[in-house]
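Ligand: D-xylitol-5-phosphate. Inputs:
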Amino acid sequence: MNIYASMLSANPCCLGDELRELSTADGIHWDIMDGNFVDNITFGVDVIAAHREITDQIFDVHLMVNAPEKHIKNFAEAGADIITVHAESSHHLYRVLDLIKSFGKKTGIALNPSTSPDFLKYINSELIDSVLIMTVSPGMSGQSFIYSQKLKISLIAQMLSHDIEIGVDGGINEQTIIECTDATYAVVGSYIFNSDDYSESIHKLKNV
Ligand code: DX5
Ligand code: ZN
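Predicted complex:
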């Protein structure tokens, strides 16, 4: 399974140094929160653009914001490779996905723990590059994995064509990653950044 490191758990005093320690991660996940869709406020467009200079790794920008359509252009130009929007955050998800594609970026649809996988039935598969299953309620790092999402992960794996990536986000560690075998990537914050050796932690998760 691919491992994307979530910068939300990095030391905010030295994000660039932290990023340089993550060269073995398959991608870098940026949690963008607006204090509205979720309570917390995190990184803006300039932060993404500044760190784009440091690495060629995949940047997965996870927008936990209301009205994500207002922000797609800015994050695309800042250097996002994948822009993941919440199914619950826009009245016009088709339009948002089209907009992401119009900038040549990959799309992701994030689903809150209580959102049904049926939601995906009505979206053309050409518009979906990845689905991100939230295994915690979005808004902060360091929460416990919600085990009811295990069923959702397998249902979504059965529903989608095989070229669509399936991610899990929240509470991932050596024990919980075992529950997510149908996923193709895992977003990991605390487990990596609470360790002394980030590469070793990434290696351990990839080899569970
Ligand atoms: C939660 C974020 C996650 C978070 C994961 O809202 O979307 O990406 O950083 O952190 P951990 O791995 O600590 O649950
Ligand atoms: Zn996230």
